Protein backbone atom coordinates (compact mmCIF):
# COMPACT_ATOMS: atom_id res chain seq x y z
CA UNK A 1 0.00 0.00 0.00
CA UNK A 2 1.37 3.40 -1.00
CA UNK A 3 1.86 6.21 1.50
CA UNK A 4 -0.91 8.82 1.49
CA UNK A 5 1.77 11.52 1.81
CA UNK A 6 5.07 10.92 0.07
CA UNK A 7 7.70 13.64 0.58
CA UNK A 8 9.78 12.36 -2.35
CA UNK A 9 7.21 12.02 -5.11
CA UNK A 10 4.07 13.78 -3.87
CA UNK A 11 2.75 17.02 -5.43
CA UNK A 12 4.40 20.20 -4.15
CA UNK A 13 3.53 23.88 -4.07
CA UNK A 14 6.55 25.63 -5.58
CA UNK A 15 5.20 29.06 -4.57
CA UNK A 16 4.89 28.10 -0.91
CA UNK A 17 2.03 29.06 1.37
CA UNK A 18 1.66 31.54 4.20
CA UNK A 19 0.15 30.30 7.45
CA UNK A 20 -1.95 32.50 9.73
CA UNK A 21 -3.53 31.96 13.12
CA UNK A 22 -7.31 32.16 12.84
CA UNK A 23 -8.55 34.93 15.12
CA UNK A 24 -11.65 33.08 16.29
CA UNK A 25 -12.80 31.44 19.50
CA UNK A 26 -14.79 28.22 19.16
CA UNK A 27 -17.54 27.49 21.66
CA UNK A 28 -17.58 23.97 23.11
CA UNK A 29 -20.82 22.13 22.48
CA UNK A 30 -22.15 18.62 23.05
CA UNK A 31 -24.97 16.92 21.21
CA UNK A 32 -27.87 14.70 22.16
CA UNK A 33 -25.60 11.66 22.11
CA UNK A 34 -23.60 13.00 25.07
CA UNK A 35 -26.78 13.64 27.06
CA UNK A 36 -28.05 10.13 26.30
CA UNK A 37 -24.66 8.76 27.35
CA UNK A 38 -24.93 10.43 30.76
CA UNK A 39 -28.52 9.28 31.24
CA UNK A 40 -27.58 5.73 30.30
CA UNK A 41 -24.84 5.69 32.94
CA UNK A 42 -27.47 6.39 35.61
CA UNK A 43 -30.37 4.22 34.50
CA UNK A 44 -28.92 1.27 32.56
CA UNK A 45 -27.58 -0.61 35.58
CA UNK A 46 -30.67 -0.11 37.79
CA UNK A 47 -32.92 -1.01 34.84
CA UNK A 48 -31.11 -4.32 34.33
CA UNK A 49 -31.38 -5.03 38.07
CA UNK A 50 -35.10 -4.28 38.15
CA UNK A 51 -35.71 -6.45 35.11
CA UNK A 52 -33.83 -9.31 36.79
CA UNK A 53 -35.81 -8.74 39.98
CA UNK A 54 -39.28 -8.73 38.39
CA UNK A 55 -38.61 -11.48 35.90
CA UNK A 56 -36.88 -13.77 38.37
CA UNK A 57 -33.72 -14.07 36.27
CA UNK A 58 -31.66 -13.65 39.45
CA UNK A 59 -32.35 -14.40 43.11
CA UNK A 60 -34.14 -11.52 44.83
CA UNK A 61 -31.17 -10.39 46.96
CA UNK A 62 -28.76 -10.49 44.03
CA UNK A 63 -31.19 -8.51 41.87
CA UNK A 64 -31.56 -5.86 44.61
CA UNK A 65 -27.79 -5.57 44.98
CA UNK A 66 -27.42 -5.29 41.19
CA UNK A 67 -30.05 -2.52 41.16
CA UNK A 68 -28.26 -0.61 43.93
CA UNK A 69 -24.85 -1.00 42.34
CA UNK A 70 -26.26 0.03 38.97
CA UNK A 71 -25.95 3.71 39.88
CA UNK A 72 -22.18 3.42 40.39
CA UNK A 73 -21.27 4.30 36.76
CA UNK A 74 -23.30 7.51 37.09
CA UNK A 75 -21.69 8.37 40.43
CA UNK A 76 -18.20 7.64 39.11
CA UNK A 77 -18.78 9.80 36.03
CA UNK A 78 -20.11 12.60 38.24
CA UNK A 79 -16.87 12.43 40.25
CA UNK A 80 -14.85 12.50 37.04
CA UNK A 81 -16.71 15.64 35.96
CA UNK A 82 -15.96 17.32 39.28
CA UNK A 83 -12.26 16.50 38.83
CA UNK A 84 -12.35 17.68 35.22
CA UNK A 85 -13.86 21.04 36.23
CA UNK A 86 -11.21 21.47 38.92
CA UNK A 87 -8.50 20.62 36.37
CA UNK A 88 -9.79 23.11 33.80
CA UNK A 89 -10.08 25.86 36.42
CA UNK A 90 -6.52 25.15 37.52
CA UNK A 91 -5.38 25.30 33.89
CA UNK A 92 -7.13 28.66 33.53
CA UNK A 93 -5.09 29.95 36.47
CA UNK A 94 -1.93 28.70 34.75
CA UNK A 95 -2.93 30.60 31.61
CA UNK A 96 -3.49 33.74 33.69
CA UNK A 97 -0.08 33.34 35.35
CA UNK A 98 1.62 32.93 31.96
CA UNK A 99 -0.26 35.96 30.62
CA UNK A 100 0.72 38.00 33.66
CA UNK A 101 4.38 37.22 32.99
CA UNK A 102 3.99 38.62 29.47
CA UNK A 103 2.27 41.71 30.90
CA UNK A 104 5.19 42.26 33.29
CA UNK A 105 7.68 42.24 30.44
CA UNK A 106 5.44 44.46 28.32
CA UNK A 107 5.22 46.96 31.18
CA UNK A 108 9.02 46.99 31.47
CA UNK A 109 9.27 47.62 27.73
CA UNK A 110 6.88 50.56 28.06
CA UNK A 111 9.11 52.03 30.77
CA UNK A 112 12.15 51.59 28.51
CA UNK A 113 10.12 53.09 25.68
CA UNK A 114 9.31 56.17 27.77
CA UNK A 115 12.97 56.68 28.62
CA UNK A 116 14.11 56.21 25.03
CA UNK A 117 11.51 58.56 23.58
CA UNK A 118 12.32 61.17 26.21
CA UNK A 119 16.00 61.06 25.32
CA UNK A 120 15.37 61.08 21.57
CA UNK A 121 12.90 63.94 21.87
CA UNK A 122 15.66 66.06 23.41
CA UNK A 123 18.00 65.23 20.54
CA UNK A 124 15.76 65.35 17.45
CA UNK A 125 12.21 66.20 16.45
CA UNK A 126 10.46 62.88 16.93
CA UNK A 127 7.20 61.52 15.49
CA UNK A 128 4.36 63.14 17.48
CA UNK A 129 2.09 60.12 16.95
CA UNK A 130 4.66 57.97 18.74
CA UNK A 131 4.67 60.42 21.64
CA UNK A 132 0.86 60.32 21.88
CA UNK A 133 0.90 56.52 22.03
CA UNK A 134 3.57 56.47 24.72
CA UNK A 135 1.53 58.98 26.73
CA UNK A 136 -1.45 56.63 26.51
CA UNK A 137 0.63 53.80 27.94
CA UNK A 138 1.89 56.10 30.69
CA UNK A 139 -1.70 56.77 31.75
CA UNK A 140 -2.26 53.16 32.75
CA UNK A 141 -3.02 51.26 29.54
CA UNK A 142 -3.31 47.61 30.51
CA UNK A 143 -4.48 44.65 28.39
CA UNK A 144 -7.55 42.90 29.76
CA UNK A 145 -7.98 40.01 27.33
CA UNK A 146 -5.99 37.62 25.16
CA UNK A 147 -6.71 39.69 22.04
CA UNK A 148 -5.87 43.03 23.66
CA UNK A 149 -2.64 41.62 25.09
CA UNK A 150 -1.56 40.53 21.62
CA UNK A 151 -2.52 43.90 20.11
CA UNK A 152 -0.64 45.77 22.85
CA UNK A 153 2.48 43.71 22.23
CA UNK A 154 2.30 44.34 18.49
CA UNK A 155 1.80 48.09 19.03
CA UNK A 156 4.86 48.27 21.26
CA UNK A 157 6.84 46.35 18.63
CA UNK A 158 5.72 48.94 16.08
CA UNK A 159 6.78 51.83 18.30
CA UNK A 160 10.24 50.37 18.75
CA UNK A 161 10.52 49.89 15.00
CA UNK A 162 9.98 53.66 14.64
CA UNK A 163 12.64 54.27 17.26
CA UNK A 164 15.08 51.93 15.52
CA UNK A 165 14.66 53.96 12.31
CA UNK A 166 15.51 57.14 14.20
CA UNK A 167 18.36 55.37 15.98
CA UNK A 168 19.91 54.32 12.66
CA UNK A 169 19.25 57.66 10.95
CA UNK A 170 21.11 59.71 13.57
CA UNK A 171 24.61 58.31 14.25
CA UNK A 172 25.04 60.67 17.21
CA UNK A 173 22.25 58.84 19.01
CA UNK A 174 24.23 55.59 18.94
CA UNK A 175 26.98 57.29 20.92
CA UNK A 176 24.52 58.25 23.65
CA UNK A 177 25.33 55.84 26.49
CA UNK A 178 21.86 55.98 28.07
CA UNK A 179 20.18 55.31 24.73
CA UNK A 180 22.50 52.43 23.90
CA UNK A 181 21.81 50.88 27.31
CA UNK A 182 18.05 51.32 26.87
CA UNK A 183 18.12 49.63 23.48
CA UNK A 184 20.07 46.72 24.99
CA UNK A 185 17.41 46.45 27.68
CA UNK A 186 14.75 46.41 24.99
CA UNK A 187 16.54 43.63 23.13
CA UNK A 188 16.76 41.57 26.33
CA UNK A 189 13.09 42.15 27.20
CA UNK A 190 12.01 41.20 23.68
CA UNK A 191 13.78 37.87 24.06
CA UNK A 192 12.06 37.33 27.42
CA UNK A 193 8.69 38.17 25.88
CA UNK A 194 9.33 35.68 23.08
CA UNK A 195 10.06 32.95 25.65
CA UNK A 196 7.02 33.94 27.74
CA UNK A 197 4.84 33.90 24.63
CA UNK A 198 6.02 30.37 23.81
CA UNK A 199 5.14 29.21 27.33
CA UNK A 200 1.75 30.93 27.12
CA UNK A 201 1.01 29.38 23.73
CA UNK A 202 2.01 25.93 25.00
CA UNK A 203 -0.46 26.25 27.88
CA UNK A 204 -3.16 27.49 25.49
CA UNK A 205 -2.50 24.50 23.25
CA UNK A 206 -3.14 22.16 26.19
CA UNK A 207 -6.35 24.02 27.00
CA UNK A 208 -7.60 24.01 23.41
CA UNK A 209 -7.03 20.26 23.16
CA UNK A 210 -8.34 19.27 26.58
CA UNK A 211 -11.70 21.04 26.30
CA UNK A 212 -12.45 18.82 23.28
CA UNK A 213 -11.56 15.66 25.23
CA UNK A 214 -14.82 13.65 25.20
CA UNK A 215 -16.66 12.72 27.24
CA UNK A 216 -15.73 14.20 30.62
CA UNK A 217 -13.84 17.40 29.86
CA UNK A 218 -15.85 18.33 26.78
CA UNK A 219 -19.17 17.91 28.62
CA UNK A 220 -17.86 19.98 31.53
CA UNK A 221 -16.44 22.64 29.21
CA UNK A 222 -19.72 22.89 27.28
CA UNK A 223 -21.76 23.25 30.47
CA UNK A 224 -19.36 25.92 31.79
CA UNK A 225 -19.53 27.83 28.49
CA UNK A 226 -15.79 27.57 27.82
CA UNK A 227 -14.29 28.40 24.43
CA UNK A 228 -10.96 27.89 22.73
CA UNK A 229 -8.41 30.63 23.29
CA UNK A 230 -6.40 32.51 20.66
CA UNK A 231 -2.60 32.21 20.92
CA UNK A 232 -0.12 35.03 20.45
CA UNK A 233 0.45 35.82 16.79
CA UNK A 234 2.93 37.85 14.78
CA UNK A 235 1.66 41.08 13.26
CA UNK A 236 1.46 41.56 9.49
CA UNK A 237 4.26 44.12 9.81
CA UNK A 238 6.51 41.60 11.58
CA UNK A 239 5.79 38.92 8.98
CA UNK A 240 6.58 41.32 6.16
CA UNK A 241 9.85 42.33 7.82
CA UNK A 242 10.80 38.68 8.28
CA UNK A 243 10.56 38.17 4.52
CA UNK A 244 12.89 41.08 3.80
CA UNK A 245 16.58 40.95 3.05
CA UNK A 246 18.82 41.34 6.07
CA UNK A 247 22.24 41.12 4.44
Short structural summary:
This protein starts with 31 loop residues before the first helix and ends in a 5-residue tail after the last helix.
Polypeptide structure, described:
Helix content is 71%, strand content 0%. The protein starts with 31 loop residues before the first helix and ends in a 5-residue tail after the last helix. The mean pLDDT is 83. The radius of gyration is 29 Å and the shape is elongated. α1 runs antiparallel to α2. It contains 9 helices and no strands. It folds into 2 domains: 43 residues, no CATH class; 156 residues, Up-down Bundle (de novo design (two linked rop proteins)). The protein has 247 residues and is an all-alpha fold.
The helix-and-strand class reads mainly alpha
Which residues sit in consecutive blocks of at least 5 with pLDDT less than 50? Answer: none
Biggest sheet character: none
How much is the radius of gyration in Å? 29 Å
Shape: elongated
Number of domains: 2
Strand content: under 5%
Helix and strand pattern: HHHHHHHHH
Per DSSP, the total helix count is 9
CATH topology (fold) name of the largest domain: de novo design (two linked rop proteins)
| CATH architectural arrangement of the largest domain | Up-down Bundle
Count of strand segments: 0
Task: Report mean pLDDT, rounded to a whole number.
Answer: 83
Distance between the amino and carboxyl termini: 47 Å
Summarize the amount of helix as a percent range: over 70%
Which CATH top level class of the largest domain fits?
Answer: Mainly Alpha
Amino acid sequence: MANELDEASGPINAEGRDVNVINKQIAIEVGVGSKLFEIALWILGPAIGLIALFTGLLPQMEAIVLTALGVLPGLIFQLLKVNALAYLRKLQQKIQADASQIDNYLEQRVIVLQNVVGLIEKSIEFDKDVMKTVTAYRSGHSPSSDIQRNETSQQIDGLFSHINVAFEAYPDLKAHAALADAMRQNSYLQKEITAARALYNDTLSIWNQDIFSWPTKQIVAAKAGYTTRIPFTASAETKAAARGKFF
